[in-house]
Amino acid sequence: MSRAGWAGHSPAVEVSTARPWHTRPVTVGLVGAGVMGADHARLLSGSVSGARVGGVCDVDEARARQVAGATGARLLSDPFALIADDDIDAVLVASSDPTHEAYVLAAIALGKPVLCEKPLAPTVDGCQRIVDAETAFGSRLVTVGFMRRYDPGYLELKRALDDGEIGAPLVLHCVHRNPTNTPGQPSAAVITNSAVHELDVSRWLLGEEVVEATVHTPRRAAAAGGTADPQLLVLRTASGVLVDVEVFVNAGYGYEVRCELVGEAGTVELDRPSATVQRRGGVIARPLATDWRPRFAEAYRRELQDWVDGVRLAAPPAVSPAATAWDGFAATYLAQACVRALETGAPATVDLPARPKLYEP
Predict the structure, then answer these.
(1) What percent of the chain shows pLDDT beyond 70?
(2) Which of 102, 150, 274, 294 has the highest Cβ tally under 10 A?
(3) CATH topology for the 21-148+298-321 domain
């Protein structure tokens, strides 16, 4: 079955008369079977309707074999062969960051929908090549895995703002903390690997672009080694909204994400996601996750279901928070501006290019 785009100016989709497209599961090819890839495979196999994992590929064959065995998928050794396989309807890229560009471009060339974990590509130039390829194809095929857009809390923040319940936005406060990270990792990675989620969600929540970025670094945490950690990012949007992002990847105590949006008529913030409260030893406590997966488990499930539904319909859902290839480009572009601000100690101007027509709302 040929998959030739989702919508817009794509070639006509060939639909089998024996098994209409919408009546059979979407067969997903998984490139990358690490932590994220294995989680995606588990969700596609057991929690997402209308999908099946049809092929798995990873540089670590033992890891790929384990995921393939758990999902009943075929094991393939060549990622490009998996992407080109006639049985594969759509591709999920969860491999190492430097490989994303090549695999996404291969999927676009074959007209196959592709969900790529963030980043779309580690460099602005790489993201630009993907945007150019998708624009030349004439239809949106690429979704970027910024799963927070599907989190019920973030969705409620956006609804409250869009419905005018808190008035015009003034300030967005964000906190992103991990218990531990690789000691001595490059300071820029704190931005490109962690804070990039806040960079994307800020653009999405506020519906406008950041025009200036500043990065402040306090005294380094002892556990951070040579990494500048924590960091405080201060962003200014085109309309003058300020966004502050505290990112601390060696916080020690657990994984925690907070967000509060301050408007002219009120505020709205993420509630604590913990389902239980413990009372013992003279304290009242809420348990914290040790990493991002349990905190955003529902967001990942919703993201995958939305993507699969779009593939089955041969068109993106009419109302979807999904991040496009352009959003992936913008997030990497903004992250690199923040890295410049970190390295120079001076504000960095963010002069994002014009949005291509394909990605206009």
Answers:
(1) 93
(2) 150
(3) Rossmann fold (3.40.50)
